[in-house]
Amino acid sequence: MTLETVVEAILEKGKAEAEGILAEARAERERMLDEARREGAKALGDTEARAREAAQRRRVQALARAELEARKIVLATQREALDKVYQGALARLGILPENESFLRRLLKANESEWRGGGKVYSNARDEPVVRRIVGSAFAGTIDCAGGVVIESGDGTRRDDLRYESILRDVWDDAVKEVAETLWPSKK
What we know:
Blueprint: H1 3-93, H2 99-109, H3 111-115, E1 119-122, H4 127-134, E2 138-141, E3 147-151, E4 158-162, H5 163-182
Parallel strand pairs: 1-2
Antiparallel strand pairs: 1-3, 3-4
Helix pairs in contact: 1-5, 2-4
């Protein structure tokens, strides 16, 4: 074997080893790229899933806010309608044909309060009727829809029998029933 053949054999062996190393490096590169692709795809999938979940949460929150706002609007409208019904009832109370009869009954039921030196107040419209019934116990007019206010003889107690007060007491007890009549619940 000559030196030239030995050098060629070494070069051939070196070339073969270099090609082996390059092949291993290429395989390692492909393995690393495949792993990076898998990790990238997994990260992308995770990010997309989180984004879908976040979008779903925002959608649910937006719907909940919209439902709450709609409910507030409905409740405000219902409240406004109830207030109109209340104001209408109050306005009609003072002009009922039975108004004089109501006043007589109120004053008769509370006669012990005003007969013994008490004072009776009414609105200006009802003054003639009340003055006829209580005489000198009439003490003046007040701003109200109707009814009377009776002050005891010693001035320690006032009975508020104005239509506003009576209606408010009845209204507070019956407002749920009125609302249910106007807007039946969907059970």
